[in-house]
Amino acid sequence: MGHRHAISDADFDRIKNLLPGRPGKTGWVGRDTRLSLNAVLYVAKTGIPWWDRPERFGPWGTAYKRFYRWPRKGTWAAVFAALQDPD
Fold first, then answer.
1. Which residues of the chain have pLDDT under 70?
2. Could you please report the per-residue DSSP string of 8-77?
3. In this predicted structure, what is the pLDDT of residue 3?
4. Of 24, 27, 66, 85, most Cβ neighbours within 10 A?
5. Which of 55, 59, 57 is closest to 37 using CA atoms?
6. What pLDDT does 42 receive?
7. pTM for this prediction
8. What are phi and psi for residue 47, nearest 5 degrees?
9. What is d(CA 73, CA 8) in angstroms, rounded to the nearest whole number?
């Protein structure tokens, strides 16, 4: 994506298989999980309300729902563990 609040390609490659809604898994397939993840990062880093994020992130409700659903599935814990610096 190239924006300073977006996840890097290298980091996304490390976690993409941990995220729900990917092809080949049961259930609904996310249209653009990376975009939603970047929206969550943007809101978290800037502190703005969900509905005030830039339009490039798509509907605010999509990222909001994922942000609040992923803890129940253990997604955030798995993502944080995968991205943790070993030092």
1. 1-2, 21-31, 87
2. PHHHHHHHGGGSSS-TTSSSPPPS-HHHHHHHHHHHHHH---GGGS-GGG--HHHHHHHHHHHHHHTHHH
3. 75
4. 66
5. 57
6. 94
7. 0.80
8. 80, 10
9. 23
